[in-house]
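Annex B. Sample input.
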Amino acid sequence: MQVGDTVTVSGYVDVYYGWATNRPLSGAAFTDGAGTTAKRSDEFSLNLAAFDLALAQGPVSLRLVLNYGTSTEIVHGAEPTGAGIGREAWKLVQQAYVGYRFDVRLGLLIEGGIFPSHIGFEVLPSKDNWTYTRAFMSDYSPYYQAGVRALLQATDALTLGLHVLNGWQVIGENNEWKTLGTQLAWRRPGGALGVTLRAGNVVLDTVGRDVRVGGVPLQLPRRECALLEHLLRRQGRVVPKSVLEEKLYGIDDELESNAVPVHVHHLRRKLQEAAATAEIHTVRGVGYLLTDGAA
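Annex B, continued. Sample output.
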């Protein structure tokens, strides 16, 4: 749910019934330390319920995700114990970090706090993974990290990252030195073929320049179609206004200061009138963000 232009509030409840064929007497479907999904056998249980608050105001961002369930009980089981740390201190917190975006390349984002791990193939919320239960390779890789990370959007496709962390899936420190992590992420714009882009019920054929909302054609002028394409290619990420100006206008074009906001206004209105589930959000002082409002 969007609250104004800066705050997004959402949540989910994930309940399950699990049954293990070996019928464990303890009721635990997995060994100790594993089973971050469907831990209990032959019973209904709460895997994970979460409340998610996200704020984006200009270059400043904040994310707070509070959760409860058997999943977070297991994943925080290895937290080192001590004054002010341990599983009981942190099990309700899935994410809690603040960030600031600098105008370097396509954006340099510095974030500090508790955030999802850059290691592994799956995330803690099982609903967002390909399969509900996990392989042991995923269960023994970190789901969260605590520290500071710097993420540089070098190009539309390439992201470079440097992480300074407390350790391997720990919030409380149990090391003499900090842990360093690096990240190089390549995301080919538009997916595997770069031909069809989607966000909710909005589909853009980048070859035929055909836009459809819920299967119904939507006619857009050239620049509005190009604007939609660039937002779709970076769906879920803020696109700086300066980048859109470069994409939409050539060197010799005369550009007015409000040109991009005007195009965004017209495109947003047309998508709303067509009952599109994709939404364009204004991040004041930075740029624009396209999200799937139905997700």
